[in-house]
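Table S4 entry, MYC binding protein.
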Amino acid sequence: MCIFQAADSKREQFRRYLEKAGVLDSLTKVLVALYEEPEKPNNALDFLKQHMCAAGPESPDVETLRLELAELKLKYEAVVEENKELKAKVCKCSP
C-alpha cells in the first residue's frame, strides 16, 4: 500500500511540474487545434511537432540568428554584385 502512495505522490509532483512549466497548457492548445482542423492531417505527429515549435516563445538566440542571417544575405548580395562587375571588367580587358 505504501508503494502505491509513493508512486501516486511522484505522479502528482510530476503533474504539478508539467502544469507549472506550461507544458500541459501547450499540449492542450495543440491538441485542441488538431481537433478543430476541418481536414485532419495524414500525420498527426508531424502536426503536433510543427505546432509545438510554433507555440512556444522564441529564445533570444533565435532572434540573434535571424538578424545575423539577414545581415549575411545582404553581404552575399553585395559580393555577388561585385563579382558580376569584376567579371565584366575582366571580359573587357581580355583580348
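Residues 59-95 form one domain.
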